[in-house]
Q: What sequence folds into this?
């Protein structure tokens, strides 16, 4: 993607160079132009450069890439990598550092607040109805057996192994 952007910029600069070459021959070529910024410090100065300086530096580094990579210095290789893949332009991080911690702490805080709200609301609720006690449900089972409720498959049937009306384990 970055190579396409550089190619577009390079083509537009060539076209501008052709138009300018018919009017004047005073502009130096990129190869004869000294480095705009020290290549050992590209990362630190990239954001302060103007758009034209960035394009010129990218074109200068593009020319350097045509050389044998074994002859390039470590600073030149780092500069080429930074301009091609550095955190600028479309690769600028969307979130500043520390955002993940803030999101995590915010989520944990909201979960804590919702847990406290749940406990408060539950403490204000009415007690469970008396029909939810184990004794009541056992009495309901006895009454169902006495009245022979559902004699084919339910609690009154022969060999019934289910719990019947008991839904509380307490």
A:
């Amino acid at each position: 993607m970055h190579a396409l952007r550089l190619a577009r910029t390079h083509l537009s600069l060539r076209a501008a160079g052709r138009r300018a070459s018919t009017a004047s021959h005073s502009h130096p070529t990129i190869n004869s132009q000294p480095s705009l910024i020290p290549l050992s410090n590209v990362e630190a100065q990239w954001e302060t450069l103007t758009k034209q300086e960035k394009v010129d530096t990218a074109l200068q580094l593009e020319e350097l890439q045509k050389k044998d990579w074994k002859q390039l210095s470590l600073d030149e290789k780092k500069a080429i990598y930074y301009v091609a893949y550095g955190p600028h332009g479309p690769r600028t991080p969307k979130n500043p550092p520390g955002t993940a911690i803030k999101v995590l702490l915010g989520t944990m805080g909201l979960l804590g607040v919702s847990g406290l709200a749940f406990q408060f609301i539950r403490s204000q609720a009415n007690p469970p109805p008396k029909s939810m006690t184990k004794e009541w449900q056992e009495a309901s089972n006895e009454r169902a057996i006495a009245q022979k409720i559902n004699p084919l498959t339910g609690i009154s049937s022969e060999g019934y192994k289910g719990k019947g009306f008991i839904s509380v384990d307490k």
